[in-house]
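Appendix B, Record 12. Input sequence as logged:
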Amino acid sequence: MTEIFVGITLIAIIFLLVDILLPEVVSDPVIHRRLASLRNFEDKRLDNASDEIFKNLANKEKLKKSNLLEMLKDTSDYRIQFLGAIIGRFKFIEKIKFSLKIADVKMPVDLFIMGVCGLVLAFLLLGLVSKNIIIILTGLVVGVFPFIFLKLKFLKRKEKFTQQFPEALGIISNSLRAGHSLLSAFQTVATESDYPVNKIFKNVSDEISLGREVRETMVNMGETLPGSQDLRFFVTAILIQREVGGNLAEILDNLNNTIRERYKLLGLIKTQTAQAQLSGIVLGLAPVIISGLVSMINPAYMEPLYTTLAGMAALATSFLMSLVGFLIIKKVTEIRV
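Logged structural output:
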């Protein structure tokens, strides 16, 4: 009996020590509710985070699909097929296609040709009806305006690219130093840069992602901006590095510094030759403006130039000489770097 009592006493002492040593369990219902609300909030946060992850993945897949569909869709150069079959036989159509492409103008070449012909024919018919050669000449000049527009749009796009390209090179070199691949660096440039750099690198990254050979893609990239020495140097550096190896990040840093210094030199040259270029513009436009003003003030005085054969020949000769003088001055003030 004594042994049983001692055993019960020892068991009670052990349970008492365990109760003292173990941490106290909170049994307050208010605290229980707070803990439950915290658990619910954490569960909802995790659910929202997982939903956000799945949404981002879905958006990425949707973007890839849209890029694929955009690259695989019908990119016919002609809106009206039978008209395209007719004008497609002429060689100059390929040059117009190329001009539309490098100027980034989303217009079928047949519609562009129809617009130009419509402008010229409108002025030609109006000049024939009114028997005014000035209107006919104006129609010829207006017909050249769309091509001048393409040229100016290309030059503006090229100028923007030249200004933004050093920053893009910095992004690529930093991405390569951080351990990213060349494709990932191109995708970063396509996301972070402005137009037109982002569009050019987006097209390149999409083509590489779809399995196109890197060399072929880079060569086509160099053709998107013909005449851009900066882009040509970049493409050459990438292709040489892929053939012989080397530190591409360091190469791009050197190219970046070269482009920045070259751009500064171009700005200095442009400033120094601005006066001569303005003189060429004034000398080229002065005869046209003066003859137009005199024709408005005293039409009878200028009438022989428009009605007689000798006057028309003199008018055409003066116009041609003014154009040649302007081109000579432009060529003299054009310094290549």
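The CA atoms of residues 115 and 210 lie 37 Å apart.
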